[in-house]
Structure formats: structure tokens, C-alpha cells
Specification:
Layout: E1 10-15, E2 19-25, E3 29-35, E4 39-79, E5 82-83, E6 94-95, E7 110-111, H1 116-126, E8 131-134, E9 137-140
Length: about 150
């Protein structure tokens, strides 16, 4: 049962951009999607988008992977309301700012903290005022730094 993009949805679909209740392929779309770039309610693959994802890079409500974004998430790096499997991030966990191909100096890195009070103290040490939220964490300075 091979099916590709633009065809009638199947119960089980295989191929390039298959559309089905269960879809397996290159860019599968369906309730359960398994493939390279799966998009579905339940997505398993390399880059997934859906309600529940287990992918290297994923976006959804419940996401597990390497670099993810979701309401509930588990992974090496991520963003969302609640990190699964422990506290949001250790209090001294670094939040690094990336500078498009440049290596940031240690002074260019700011820290993200679980405590607003700790972030406020770090802001004073850095010579800036206030703090701002970064997901469920707090960062020093009232505004996020911008690229030069």
C-alpha cells in the first residue's frame, strides 16, 4: 500500500509524504507518523512535529529528544513549561547565547537560574538592572541581550 502526497488517505500508508492513520516514510503525516520528518499526533523520527514526539529535534505538547520545544519536555536541550525527569535545570546551569559562527567570550554568556533572587544578584554583579524570564528559569538583566 504505497501512497504519496496528494493521494487519498489510507489506514496504513508508506512512501514519500504518505498520508494515513499510520504513516511511515520520508515526510509521513497521520495520527501515528514514523519517519524522517514525521508530523502527526504521535511522531517518531528525526525532526518531529505533533502532540507527542520522540525525535532528535521535536516540537509538540509532550516531547522527548535532543533539542526540543514543548509544554512538557525531556532532552539534552529544550524549552517549555516543565522539564520531565527532574528539576527544570540545575541552579548554576549555563544558558549560552550563540553568535552565528563566532565563539562567545565567557563574559558574553549569561546564566539562567531557578530562583529570581539569584538572577537578580547576578544582574547586580554584571552591572545591569532587573531580571527576565526564560521559560521556567530567570536570567539577569531586564532585557535579553541582542546581537551587536
Amino acid at each position: 500500500m504505497s501512497e504519496s502526497c496528494g493521494g487519498k488517505p489510507r489506514v496504513i500508508a508508506f512512501g514519500i509524504a504518505p498520508l494515513g492513520i499510520v504513516s511511515i516514510g520520508i515526510v509521513p503525516m497521520g495520527v501515528v507518523s514514523i519517519g524522517v520528518v514525521p508530523m502527526g499526533v504521535l511522531s517518531l523520527g528525526a525532526v518531529g512535529m505533533g502532540v507527542i514526539n520522540a525525535c532528535v529535534v521535536g516540537m509538540g505538547v509532550l516531547v522527548a529528544g535532543v533539542n526540543v520545544m514543548g509544554v512538557w519536555w525531556a532532552g539534552v536541550e529544550g524549552m517549555g513549561l516543565k522539564r520531565l525527569g527532574g528539576a527544570a535545570v540545575a541552579a548554576a546551569h549555563h544558558h549560552h547565547h550563540h553568535h552565528h559562527g563566532q565563539v562567545a567570550s565567557p563574559s558574553a554568556n549569561l546564566y539562567a537560574y531557578q530562583s529570581k533572587a539569584v538572577a537578580l544578584q547576578k544582574a547586580r554583579e554584571l552591572g545591569c538592572a532587573g531580571v527576565h524570564a526564560m521559560g521556567s528559569l530567570w536570567m539577569p538583566c531586564a532585557h535579553h541581550p541582542t546581537e551587536p
